[in-house]
Amino acid sequence: MIVKIGTFNLNNLFSRFNFKGRIEAILAGDTGLSVTYTFDDPQDYAIRSFMGRLVKGKDEAATTLIARRILEMDADVLAVQEVEDLPALQHFNRDYLRSLYPYQALVEGNDPRLIDVGVLSKLPIGALTSWRFASHPDEPDSPIFSRDLLEVEILDPKRRRRLFTLFNTHLKSQYLAPNENPITGKQRADLTRRRQAEVTERILIERTRPNGAFALVGDMNDSPESECLAPFVQSRALELVNGLSNAQETRPPRRDNPSPASPLWTHRYKASGQPARYELFDQIWLSQKLALRQTAAWIGRREKLGGDGSDHDPAWVVLDI
């Protein structure tokens, strides 16, 4: 049985209403018509904002672009990041992906920017576990995952057995606010990412067996060689294998100056006046059992330097289970 497992940061897939409407009579100049919107019962609505700004829906053109990329990828199980909530994911699957994925999973996380991790699957989903309340020993009273570490059992089509367990996460960003000190801000972000990696290793050790079939995927916001990710990357107990170590590109990258030194990248960032940085932020780590079943790996290369609907490129592996 061939199974494709992918990961894709959808870059702020929000579905908030922006309270705009199209009333033909008003557009036609009928000044005798007026429209009033009322919000009488706070139980019936919620206006969500971040840093004082209204959270708006993802641009239609950008949403269509990420949908096209997902349809081209045609993964059997797709881990996604930066999704507002389960209704947003369900709406996206129905209206943009032509209901390609009959199974959708997402648990609301802790992030103040309202971005969560989720799973779209053609294969049945079994047990679902959220680790949104997991903490690090150095901060036992605070959740360590701002988004989540989502654990999902993937079953065979007849639901007779578990094929593998998928762990999807989105670690601390390297982004620093304009008012942050660049040195201390980076130290703080790196420390958080390191602690998230440490807790991830602990959970995987507790929840899996050495000969088990499982994968850790998601937007790690750091390179595979980073010391911040070392707790699970170099874990002797887990012995994870980088499923993208020999990934192929679906198309050549756009010309840039300088061009990426390696095809192994999914994220491009260019600071003002600085050369672009190309890094493999989006990763797929396989257990030894799954790694023996891997037959290929791909990165869905963007057409525009800035990205096609997302500043990340999707990646996936092919397994013969």
TrEMBL record:
SUPFAM superfamilies: DNase I-like (SSF56219)
Segments for region (Disordered): 245-265
GO molecular function terms noted in the UniProt entry: catalytic activity
InterPro entries: Endo/exonu/phosph_ase_sf, Endo/exonuclease/phosphatase
Occurrences of domain Endonuclease/exonuclease/phosphatase (ranges): 58-312
Source species, domain of life: Bacteria
The protein's name in its UniProt record: Endonuclease/exonuclease/phosphatase domain-containing protein
Natural source organism: Bellilinea caldifistulae
